[in-house]
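Two proteins, back to back. First:
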Amino acid sequence: MYDAREIKILLVDDEASILEFLELGLENEGFQIMKAQDGISAINIAKQFHPHIAILDVMMPGMDGFEVCKMLKKLSDVAVIMLTAKDEVGDRVKGLTIGADDYMAKPFSFEELLARIHARIRNQFPHLLNEVVVGPFQIKDGRKEIRFKGETLTLSTTEYELLKYLVINHGIVLSKAKILDDVWGYDFGGQENIVEVYIRAIREKLGDTEHQLIRTIRGSGYRVDLS
């Protein structure tokens, strides 16, 4: 895993109660925390603090979260998790389009936010990881190797990246479009059915003939279940 004390998180929200709640919870997890109640302050803090993760509210007076996200992304490779007051598709699409890495709708559980923070660290800052153990999986990113129930899987480069992505985001439903964007890249321009082809191949290598490990969520995408 990683040492949480090495991870810097910037909290940006105009509601002091939310900032205090998040600060207390995340400091108890060991993370380094800085906070801001407006966009200008967030940008100024980020220039000195150099956060790995920014948890950013969309609805703020003055400079909104979308503008702050764009400016933060210009400064560094910070991973941005946006908080929206409503689970609206428009906010989600706009946030992802301007560079946000994830989003959550208020109200949210601290446990889910923590899981998404872990996923962002594993996805975007693998150099901070020694070895990731998730359920029956061991991911050794430096060696591009995944072990399942103690056995090393024989995977192509793309199979490795896809399985790692699915496992790290276990419990979260991932659409084919999002998988294409995050694994193949925004400029890939491929067809979504390529995801089905690779999922089928990975299931065979895992012996997941009943699709109990990598579940198909009809009309939504795929979800890895480890329970």
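And the second protein:
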Amino acid sequence: MRGSRILIAVIAALALAGCSTTGGSGLMVNAYTAKADGAYKLPAIPVSKIKRQYRRQIVAYQTKEKPGTVIVDTKAKYLYFVLDGGKAVRYGIGVGREGFTWSGTARVAFKREWPTWTPPEPMIKRQPELAKYRGGMKPGLTNPLGARALYLYNRNGDTGYRLHGTPEWWSIGGNVSSGCIRLMNQDIIDLYERVEPGAKVIVT
């Protein structure tokens, strides 16, 4: 009886802390609760409105790439972080709109928490109202880069593409960006903690 009470108490404490544990289905439990993060508090994401396949989960995944590699499947709208033992953490993503998609191999040059967003000049030409952010938009809950950004470089230098968070959780699963790969804020925080600088990123 005492052991049962202790187990119940531990489970309750994990739930209150918003920890992400893995359920029998591979889905991460409590992955999208409200989360205090530095100076900001991320609001909870209504999980019932996110399609099951786009929720963070552990899946079977066979690849010749080594653990720690990031593989982006733009067609399926999945990002995989390769683990040992033929498994991966899978996240739902939003990808580039028609005409803005890309593929190739890059590396994570560096990472930033609560990054500043600076729209590139071609984007400002398409959307002149963004000119006010030419010097950079301050970090925050409405910043398009969200809570984290991983900056992708290749042999030619900065690709201009990022793996980043977004406050627009409802856009996951769509062709919505100008080429960057976006994740829900709670997911990019999780990925950020897993990915090491220099990690290989493959976009298919």
